[in-house]
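Could someone model 5-O-phosphono-beta-D-ribofuranosylamine with this protein?
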Amino acid sequence: MKNKKHIAIFASGNGSNAQQLMQYFQHHSAVEIKLVVCNKPDALVLQKAATMNVATFLINKEELKTAEKMLPILQQHQIDFIVLAGFLLQIPNWLIQNFPNKIINIHPALLPKYGGKGMFGRFVHEAVIEANENESGISIHFVNENYDEGKIIFQAKCSVDENETIETLSKKIHALEHEYLPKIVEQLLNE
Ligand code: GRF
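Reply:
Sure, complex below.
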């Protein structure tokens, strides 16, 4: 019998948010990070998962389109909830249907602005700075069939100062993400 909620993190890159989640829930009474799913064999997130003794699963774009390979793995790990933390492939309908309101994404801007296809990582910060915004932030939202359009669960803001660069803004955004993502996941799983 399992008494904890099981989470799978989907990530494609560096995985600093994944790491934050793995650390936050490492000795948690109600939540366990069970699996890291990744589409890039050389992504740093895989090493981070290995260091934290979290299982990993590599999948490519084609394989993700059908349930055949992925669903049995999610079932085997008894996954209840999925967190996308820098995962760059589109989430297919079969996965959304199997996890209704159980998949969330973190986006490094204040949606609905600066979202959609191609809006990830430094492209987001570049667009925010070029538009002379004086604030940006993070959005945590449910995932539906369209990129970055599911219901927003939480947002936090930071300033965009004069002389802000992609690097300085990215640092501020990451700090917000690391502070809030684990807490929001915890809240959602407590509901
Ligand atoms: C984060 O900024 C997140 O908002 C976005 O991808 C980035 C992933 O960063 N979806 P990291 O790999 O967790 O450092």
